[in-house]
Design brief:
Blueprint (H helix, E strand, L loop, with lengths): L1 H22 L6 E3 L9 E4 L4 E8 L11 E5 L2 E2 L8 E8 L2 E8 L6 E7 L7 E14 L11 E9 L6 E8 L2 E2 L8 E5 L3 E7 L3 H4 L1 E9 L4 E8 L4 E4 L4 E5 L4 E8 L6 E5 L14 E4 L4 E4 L8 E9 L2 E12 L5 H54 L1
Parallel strand pairs: 2-9, 18-24
Antiparallel strand pairs: 1-3, 3-7, 4-5, 4-8, 6-7, 8-9, 9-10, 10-14, 11-12, 11-15, 13-14, 15-16, 17-19, 19-22, 20-23, 21-22, 23-24
The structure holds 2-acetamido-2-deoxy-beta-D-glucopyranose (5 copies).
Length: 384
């Protein structure tokens, strides 16, 4: 019975295998999760949260349940309490055992180790470095119109220049390039990065300003400040608008500010707040930023004002609307027509009178006698 023999042989072989492999756990089986991305040390901004993973590849034939990963903080086996800021989880992914160590709101640096329980000489180690980082800026809130410049310093502590890959600045999520059309200036110093916006615009520069440190070890650390401002209002179109009687009027008001304005309204040239209750031709859209008036008339001409307000005040912008007669556009055309008509008439009359004169002259000079003769003949014929 060779098949039974073979089966027994294999069972024995795998049993030996399990015993052997459990004993033969090697250091290269133990790795930091996403090792290619993160190097040592692992930088975290003070107050931020982070998660770091440790992965154990269990040898062929063994079960992941044969192992347990444990963590050491400053060389002491770590025990997560219930309501602490730390959490440890463990999961199996095929024949890997993965343990993740999380901390909420880090306040100081420490050494972190991961090892399979019972293997005191088999561990991997990482330095967790808590760095302080903070943005400060020169303006007292809120940012007002025509401020000379906005000056930010992003100071950091606990990381050396050697470990900094790049420091980036963002305004409302947009990465700042010094060669942008606007006047931006970024300068890097030993313990801070300075960012200056010359002649800041509320419409572009108020809001969230972020300083981001990218480390050579693969970490990204950032701090954010919200620059509050007065509201700002401007028109998308030119300073004035020309319309013809009966046209619809559409005005778009570009509103900005930090916090974003919550109240937007319009005043007519007669200083009346515009809405559909006051005038059924009026409609408002985009939280009142777009004003529409159907069937515009002479009385609607004048200066329109758009107002916006937030917690820091109110701001307005005006635009002049001119309304022309419906036939106004026709008058020049009619004028040209009349001109052409008169010109043609003059030419025609002149031509006619010239022809008449020419004919008269010919008659006088040459055909005078003939005509008289023929007339005479006709007369004679009629007589006869
Ligand atoms: C490792 O990378 C994977 C995929 O990018 C991601 O889902 C996982 O959260 C990362 N783990 C850690 C601890 O960063
Ligand atoms: C930023 O630092 C520079 C140099 O120390 C200083 O002149 C400037 O006033 C600082 N700006 C702010 C907003 O703190
Ligand atoms: C600024 O960030 C806060 C959250 O930090 C967010 O609620 C807000 O919408 C952001 N503002 C802008 C203008 O992006
Ligand atoms: C829009 O305008 C109307 C009428 O002026 C006003 O009652 C309402 O509060 C405005 N809404 C907003 C979002 O400003
Ligand atoms: C509009 O704003 C200007 C200042 O920009 C202010 O002088 C004026 O009084 C405001 N108009 C109204 C109607 O509030």
């Amino acid at each position: 019975m060779p098949s039974v023999n073979f089966a027994i042989f294999f069972i024995v072989l795998s049993a030996i295998d399990v015993v052997l492999s459990k004993a033969e756990l090697k250091l290269e089986d133990l790795q930091w999760e996403n090792k290619s991305k993160y190097k040592n040390p692992f930088y975290v901004k003070k107050g931020d949260s982070f998660t770091i993973g440790c992965s154990l590849r269990t040898p062929f034939g063994s079960s992941v349940t044969d192992y347990l990963l444990e963590w050491l903080v400053n060389n002491r086996v770590f025990q997560a309490d219930y309501d602490s800021d730390f959490e440890v989880t463990q999961k199996k992914v095929s024949n890997n055992l993965i343990s993740e160590f999380s901390q909420r709101g880090i306040s100081e640096s420490y050494n972190l180790k991961c090892r399979p329980r019972g293997y005191s000489n088999l561990e991997i180690s990482k330095q967790i470095d808590a760095i302080s980082m903070k943005i400060e800026y020169n303006v007292d809130d809120p940012l007002r119109h025509n401020e000379k410049n906005l000056d930010f310093n992003c100071t950091f502590n606990g990381i050396t220049d050697d470990d900094i890959e790049e420091i980036l600045w963002y305004v409302n999520g947009k990465k700042i390039e010094e060669k942008d059309g606007r006047i931006y200036k970024i300068s890097k110093h030993e313990t801070y990065s300075q960012f200056i916006i010359k002649h800041p615009k509320i419409s572009e520069d108020a809001g969230n300003v972020t300083c981001q440190i990218q480390t050579k070890t693969g970490n990204t650390l950032s701090d954010i400040v919200t620059v509050s401002s007065e509201p700002h209002v401007e028109f998308e179109e030119e300073r004035s608008k020309n319309l013809v009687q009966g046209d619809p009027l559409t005005l778009k008001c570009k509103v900005s500010g930090s916090p974003a304005p919550t109240r937007i309204y319009w005043k007519s040239p007669k200083e009346q707040i515009l809405n559909s209750d006051v005038d059924s031709r009026v409609s408002l859209k985009d939280s009142n930023a777009t004003l529409k008036i159907k069937d515009i008339d002479f009385e609607d001409k004048g200066t329109y004002t758009c107002f916006a307000s937030n917690s820091h005040g109110e701001y307005n912008a005006t635009i002049t609307v001119r309304v022309k007669d419906k036939l106004a556009a026709l008058w020049p055309f009619l004028g040209i027509c009349a001109e052409v008509f008169i010109l043609c008439s003059i030419i025609l009359i002149y031509e006619r009178s010239r022809k008449k004169k020419d004919t008269e002259n010919t008659v006088d000079d040459e055909a005078g006698d003939k005509l008289t003769n023929s007339n005479d003949n006709q007369v004679r014929q009629r007589r006869s």
